[in-house]
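Re: that backbone. Tokens:
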């Protein structure tokens, strides 16, 4: 839209609340030449928010409504509309429940609750109930998908034998709760009988049940395209929020946006715009849910999980290709392609210290249990104390693969590094920096993403040899498996069922494939074929699915979530950082 040059403000209408928009402003001069353009991301939010979590409990000729009050100081009152009743009910603003009496049993009513504000009213939130049909447990729906959260509420108009003192829930899947309104999800399909036992003040008790039908996952493939932001995935593996309900995956081309995906519904919660290609570094999630994403625009971003808004950004000296590492004390270590190691305070986004390393390109960063940092370049590996003091540097040349990764063994004494140019995998003594052994993948080219299993076996793959290798802790080959296509950047992930998964960057026949290999024999135990290309690492989610990004047509990729009936291997370095959060920390 064009506005007069004398104006300093304008209003844009017709937008959708909760959606993210980018607004750009550019001056146009009399000769029709244009000045520089400034942009800002904005998410419109209603000034008249409605109530949430409306539940209606039926009783004998009455119902009770409960809801969550909107967070607005401007709320004046509520207006309740009831079907077949002409006059609205006005409810004071401080209330969060209301009882409606004088209703007709066995008649279904629809209740519409509206918030009243000085500038108008909110959208109506609706629910239905039938007085006289009194159920012991109230849920929004009794048909769920796997891992879909559901709030369970006991109906105090069913339990009327006294004053309620306590509630105990049995969800029928081995889980229980003593909360009054627990939130629960089910990890397997089937029919579950959920029972609540109410204890009254006189120590008598009464129980009631509801049956829940749990079906399969809602989705398996979703396109990474949201509000005009899109891209495909290269190198980076998905990481998860602390509660496991959100997956984060950065795209690579055309720009490096970070996508937050609801893993239950398969919908994009938000996308954080990064105006440059991102492939390699990030993302990492801390204990509070903050996401840290390294961009190839020479910046590190801290992002709020609720809405994808920025917490801070930190400028560094070059592109970050190496995956970062996050310490337990809140320091993020990032290694740039100018081989500068940055220590960044995650609270403020300020640089605590920086060190220039040997070599020409940054490759990998990891942190051991004592907080020491290991940074690998195309020339050597350096060990630093948390203060920034260097402890040692390998005397032997170690050419850590660009955008590769480190792994640390279960004992925390050996660092494994994959190398460039058929130099394979090296085992480094973490105390001294000495190289214990090297297994060369002769003719295989660059090696990627080592994984250390609980039994001491180390797995890695290579670019040109098209193989996955299993190496014993003494450096001896246990087995190797050729997958029939190039494995460029296709990182491994280890599941708790003794299967290690790897995708192919090239086609095997007509398809790109994901293989699950038996860790004892190397034989194929799982195979998934895709028409979209893989060039990235995978992660096993807490919901027993394998997550991986793809390269699709027209620079738009997808996120896959494939049921594998196995969880992540949590007692080893099973994927980047050995956990779902990508911390690269022991």
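Recovered sequence:
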């Amino acid at each position: 839209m064009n506005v007069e040059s004398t104006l300093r403000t304008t209003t844009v209408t017709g937008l959708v609340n909760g959606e993210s928009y980018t607004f750009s402003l550019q001056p146009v001069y009399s000769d029709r030449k244009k000045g520089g353009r400034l942009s800002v991301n904005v998410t419109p939010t209603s000034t008249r928010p409605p109530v949430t979590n409306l539940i209606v409990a039926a009783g004998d000729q009455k119902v009770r409504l409960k809801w969550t009050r909107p967070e607005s100081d401007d709320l004046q009152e509520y207006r309740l509309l009831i079907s077949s009743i002409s006059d609205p009910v006005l409810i004071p603003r401080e209330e969060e429940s209301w009882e409606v009496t004088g209703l007709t049993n066995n008649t279904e009513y629809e209740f519409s609750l509206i918030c009243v504000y000085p500038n108008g009213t909110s959208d109506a939130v609706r629910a239905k109930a039938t007085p006289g049909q009194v159920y012991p447990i109230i849920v929004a729906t009794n048909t769920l998908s796997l891992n879909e959260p559901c709030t369970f509420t006991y109906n105090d108009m069913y339990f009327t034998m006294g004053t309620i003192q306590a509630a105990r829930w049995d969800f029928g899947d081995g889980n229980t709760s003593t909360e009054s309104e627990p939130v629960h999800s089910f990890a397997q399909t089937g029919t579950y009988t959920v029972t609540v036992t109410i204890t009254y003040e006189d120590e008598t008790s009464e129980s009631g049940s509801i049956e829940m039908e749990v079906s399969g996952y809602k989705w398996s493939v979703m396109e990474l395209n949201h509000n005009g932001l899109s891209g495909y995935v290269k190198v980076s593996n998905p990481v998860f929020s602390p509660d496991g309900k959100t997956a984060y995956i950065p795209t690579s081309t055309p720009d490096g946006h970070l996508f937050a995906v609801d893993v239950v519904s398969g919908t994009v919660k938000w996308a954080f715009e990064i105006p440059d290609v991102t492939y390699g570094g990030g993302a990492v999630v801390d204990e509070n849910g903050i996401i840290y994403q390294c961009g190839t625009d020479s910046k590190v971003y801290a992002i709020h999980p609720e809405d994808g808004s920025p917490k801070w950004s930190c400028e560094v000296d070059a592109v970050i290709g190496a995956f970062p590492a996050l310490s337990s004390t809140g320091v993020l270590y990032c290694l740039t392609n100018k081989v500068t190691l940055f220590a960044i305070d995650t609270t403020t986004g300020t640089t605590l210290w920086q060190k220039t390393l040997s070599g020409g390109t940054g490759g990998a960063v990891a942190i051991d249990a004592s907080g020491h940092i290991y940074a690998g370049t195309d020339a050597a590996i350096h060990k630093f104390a948390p203060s920034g003091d260097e402890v040692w540097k390998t005397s032997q040349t170690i050419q850590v693969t660009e955008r590769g990764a480190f792994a640390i063994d279960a004992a925390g004494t050996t660092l494994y590094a994959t190398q460039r140019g058929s130099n394979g995998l090296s085992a480094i003594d973490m105390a001294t920096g000495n190289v214990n052994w090297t297994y060369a993948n002769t003719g295989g080219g660059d090696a990627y993403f080592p994984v250390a299993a609980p039994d001491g076996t180390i797995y890695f793959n290579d670019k040109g040899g098209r193989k996955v290798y299993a190496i014993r802790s003494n450096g001896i080959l246990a087995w190797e498996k050729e997958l029939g296509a190039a494995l460029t950047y296709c990182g491994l992930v280890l599941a708790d069922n003794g299967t290690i998964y790897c995708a192919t960057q090239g086609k095997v026949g007509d398809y790109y494939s994901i293989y699950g290999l038996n860790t004892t024999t190397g034989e194929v135990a799982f195979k998934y074929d895709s028409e979209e290309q893989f060039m990235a690492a995978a992660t096993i989610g807490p919901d027993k699915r394998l997550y991986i990004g793809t390269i699709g047509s027209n620079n738009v990729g997808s996120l896959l979530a494939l049921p594998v009936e196995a969880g992540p291997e949590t007692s080893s370095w099973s994927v980047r950082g050995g956990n779902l959060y990508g911390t690269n920390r022991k």
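The CA atoms of residues 235 and 489 lie 5 Å apart. The chain has no helices and 54 strands.
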